[in-house]
Amino acid sequence: MKKQLKKNRLPKILAVVVLGFFLTLSAGIAPAFASIHKYPETADRVMFRSVQSLRDTDDKAWQVVLYKRVKSGVVNSLNLRLVGFPGTQLQHPVPLQVAAGSREIGKAKDIWSDSDLPINVGEYDFKSIITQLESNRPLRLSLPVKGEPETALLVPPFSVREWRVLLDTN
Length: 170
Fold this sequence. Notes:
Elements: H1 2-26, E1 36-40, E2 45-55, E3 61-71, E4 74-84, E5 96-100, E6 103-110, E7 121-125, H2 127-130, E8 139-143, E9 151-155, H3 157-168
């Protein structure tokens, strides 16, 4: 009798688990983008930024910051800042090559010389690049690192999605 009772329970438990799984998938709940932050700079100017920590193809850590400045509802700038650790030096002024798979997206203009940032930081005008992204496909950033033949930073789909959300944020 106990065996029969256990046999009857198993399909019910399985049905509940499967139903719960499908309800979770079909709920359409978008994930939270906790790393998009809003920073008021003046009464009419706001900065939005997304911060990620990623590793390049040589397993070196980078802080990747996509930020935009909005003044009176108009986007003034949309820049990508790359901070290399430890002791990485970037070549300036060298544009940042961006690709998605085998498709070349374009080159982001190096605007580092417009700032007083240290040599391990790259600053790029990313507006023309981000507006071309039609999906969350991973990106490959070819980093102009001094003394390195080719260093790439792979941007995963969840980061690309967050960047696309940031583009539409006001």
